Amino acid sequence: IKFLTSKLFWFNILAILIIWVLIVFIQSKYLKSSTNFGEQIAVPTFYKIHMDDLDEFIKGKNITYKIQDSVYLDNWPKGTVCWQYPKPTDSSGMSVKSGREIQLSIVPLHPQMIVIPKVKDLSKRMAETTLQSKGIRTKVSYKPGADGPGYVLEQLYNGKPIKPGTSIPKGSRIEIVVSQGNTGASTALPNLVGLT
Q1: Are 43 and 63 in contact (CB under 8 A)?
Q2: Are the beta carbons of 177 and 143 closer than 8 angstroms?
Q3: Which of 5, 38, 149, 171 is deepest in the core (most CB within 10 A)?
Q4: How many angstroms separate the CA atoms of 29 and 167, rounded?
Q5: Secondary structure of the chain: what % helix, strand, coil (to 5)?
Q6: Residues sharing a CB contact under 8 Å with residue 179, sequence separation 6 or more, in sequence order
């Protein structure tokens, strides 16, 4: 009891509390300065910025960028940004801290050419898997056909039939026309009465 009521005991308790408060204060200040806590920088729109202009574009914005891959798009300007992450602040509402690296995809100036495989007579699923594994995007349309449902009747590029072995830019879109099954055409029923 004498020790618990002594000045030495309470001096030690007070010293511990002061040191604990100082540690918490210093640690919070350090974390705020090292993690840029509370800092918000708007992410600009990189779309359609040419890759040669990116360094100039990010000057003074306290962010960096990295071109991670290329994606061929028919109707997109060559050599420009077609995808970014994080998305622009004006469309996503997302902000970043200073020094954040923005991931970019570029439409190549000279796209890699891919040889089209034959997918006619394959199942829809197999045809899509085959084309996508080569970096070709797919679009599916359907029409009646004499073959069983779900099988590819033809493959089209820009609305026209394309032969297997033809080279097209990687990332292009191939339309696969898939059979819906029976054509539904009427057939005359013969008279079977009296036949064995």
Answers
A1: yes
A2: yes
A3: 171
A4: 59
A5: 25, 30, 45
A6: 142, 143, 144, 145, 146, 147, 148, 149, 150, 151, 152, 153
Tokens representing residue 165 in the block: 């072995």
Which parts of the chain have pLDDT scores under 50? none
Which residue is listed with tokens 């109707």? Answer: 75
Surface-to-core class of residue 142, CB atoms within 10 Å of its CB (0-12 exposed, 13-18 middle, 19+ buried): middle
Instruction: Write the pLDDT tens digit of every residue in 164-179.
Output: 999 998 888 999 999 9
pLDDT at 156 (0 to 100): 95
User: Tokens for 113?
Assistant: 């050419």
What residues contact 184, with CB distance under 8 A and at least 6 apart? Answer: 144
What are 168's two structure tokens?
Answer: 């097209």
How does the average pLDDT of the chain come out, rounded? 87
Report the amino acid identity of residue 124: K
